[in-house]
Amino acid sequence: MKHLLGAALVAAATFAMPAQAEVAKGLWATQPDDKGQIGHVRIRDCGPSLCGTIVKAFDQSGAEINTKNVGKQIVSGMKPASSGVYEGRVLVPILGQTVNGKMEVDGSRMKLTGCLVGICRERVWTKIR
């Protein structure tokens, strides 16, 4: 019985860490920006952390557009801080700066926060797949 319980705990611990990291991985649609444009961001493994690159952009009518931000890494160095919460760096395109940031994943929604000198801006993204 002890061995069975011990094996179950080891299995639970083994699956718990990757499951947390898997939560944020995938393709996400950004909240519309001030121009009504939306980006698709792919979150993936980048070494020991997660990063995200803008892979497509769309105008307010839904037509795909090419902007200077397509291909840019917008999220970098994101490491799990707690269940569904990651901390790292976020590019704020309107400022052209990378700032301290946080991703908070809740199912198919993710709140992304970027802060610079105590001023923070939040966006909510929706998981596509």
Task: Record the SSE blueprint.
Elements: H1 2-24, E1 26-29, E2 38-46, E3 49-58, E4 64-65, E5 73-82, E6 85-92, E7 97-106, E8 109-116, E9 119-127
Antiparallel strand pairs: 1-2, 1-9, 2-3, 3-4, 3-5, 5-6, 6-7, 7-8, 8-9
Fraction of residues in β-strands? over 45%
Rg, rounded, reads: 17 Å
Structural class, from secondary structure content? alpha+beta
**Percentage of residues in helical conformation:** 10-25%
Strand order of the largest sheet: 1-2-3-5-6-7-8-9
Helix-strand topology string: HEEEEEEEEE
Total beta strands: 9
| Bulk shape | globular
Number of helices: 1
Biggest β-sheet, characterized? 8 strands, antiparallel, barrel
Cα distance spanning the termini? 41 Å
Mean pLDDT: 84
Low-confidence stretches: 1-20
Give a brief description.
With 129 residues, this protein is of the alpha+beta class. The protein has one helix and nine strands, in the order αβββββββββ.
Protein model, in words:
This protein has one helix at residues 2-24; strands spanning 26-29, 38-46, 49-58, 64-65, 73-82, 85-92, 97-106, 109-116, 119-127. It has 129 residues and is an alpha+beta fold. It has an 8-stranded antiparallel barrel. A hairpin with a 5-residue loop joins strand 3 (49-58) and strand 4 (64-65). It is globular and about 35 Å long.
